[in-house]
Design goal:
Blueprint: E1 5-7, E2 10-17, E3 20-25, H1 35-49, H2 64-74, E4 82-83, H3 84-91, H4 95-103, E5 116-117, H5 131-140
Parallel strand pairs: 4-5
Antiparallel strand pairs: 1-2, 2-3
């Protein structure tokens, strides 16, 4: 069972397993939230209201390269961005592999893959609306130097 948070980007819901948030879904939930889901939705509501810049939740970080990339993304401060190449150098992997790991992030916003950009463009994003949603999130955060 999952509950829904209505956001400027549409409805989102959280899935949990083993005491961790394992996915943010871009669709309505199907029932009342667990305590962890309720806390995650509360923190997301604060983010969208502009009163929260960081999340304090148990997340599924994945393993191997996915874990390294997700932790590198989570370390990008609110309002800042990095390129796939910068993350690639940090984790010691090709930029294309980093891009694929970013695209496979199951908990967008909570692990801020929207803060990772291509060297010459925005890159992609999993939300409905794709890149437009990424731009909205970056503007919401006041991303410095964003040319959009």
């Amino acid at each position: 069972m999952t509950a829904t948070l209505e956001t400027p980007l549409g409805p989102v819901s959280l899935r949990t397993a083993g005491g961790r948030i394992v996915a943010l879904d871009w669709r309505p939930g199907d029932g009342p939230p667990s305590a962890l889901q309720a806390e995650g939705l509360r923190q997301l509501a604060g983010y969208f209201a502009g009163t929260r810049q960081e999340f304090d939740l148990p997340l599924d970080w994945g393993a191997g390269l996915h874990q390294a990339v997700r932790r590198a993304m989570a370390a990008i401060p609110f309002g800042e961005t990095r390129t796939y190449g910068q993350i690639a150098r940090e984790v010691g992997a090709p930029a294309q592999a980093v891009g694929q790991a970013c695209g496979a992030n199951p908990v967008p916003i909570l692990i801020p893959c929207h803060r990772v950009l291509g060297a010459a463009g925005l890159g992609g994003f999993s939300a409905p609306g794709g890149v437009e949603a990424k731009v909205w999130l970056l503007r919401h955060e006041g991303a410095a130097g964003l040319l959009i």
